[in-house]
Amino acid sequence: LVGQFAFGWYLGSIPRGTPERGYFVNLHKSIGLLIGLLILLRIGWRLTHTPPPLPNSVPRWQQQIAASTHYLLYGLMLMMPLSGYLASNFSKFGINFFNAIKLVPWGYDDKLVSAFFNQTHLVSAWLLLALVLLHVLAALKHLWIDRDTIFFRMWPQRWQNS
């Protein structure tokens, strides 16, 4: 996700109307579609595999913030690819999947609608980046300051024992 964010930021430095921009924008869209599908799989996994409750040593207010942050992370991870997909479908450009398969836009070409979804895409990107940073900082706090088991619960079981 962070790599895709950086890629999107890089796109802003490529002049509009150049062949390079078209190529890289479509690559960004293609990766975004794949990420969107992976996010759906991840949410399906999360709905069927609930994590164990946090230890009683974690204050209730921190548990509530952690739960809220996770819901926001999942919501933004859905909003990012969805808003990008919708912006593309209300544009004459559509999506050229990995610059090989043209996905014809099903929406009408409307600059205002496309701009709305592009703005939603941009704002959700910054919010997602801020939440990811908060998540990393909270994880490191548990590792280095609290010295509890929370950090290790994020990793697959086989890595926890190594």
Reconstruct the topology from this structure:
Blueprint: H1 2-11, H2 19-48, H3 60-89, E1 95-97, E2 101-103, H4 111-146, H5 150-153, H6 157-160
What does this structure look like?
The protein is mainly α and about 160 residues long. The protein has a single domain, classed as Fumarate Reductase Cytochrome B subunit (Up-down Bundle), CATH 1.20.950. Helices cover about 70% and strands about 5% of the residues. The protein contains six helices and two strands. A two-stranded antiparallel ribbon has the order 1-2. Strand 1 and strand 2 form a beta hairpin. Helix 1 runs antiparallel to helix 2, helix 2 crosses helix 3 and helix 3 packs antiparallel against helix 4. The two termini are about 25 Å apart. The relative contact order is 0.12. The mean pLDDT is about 90.
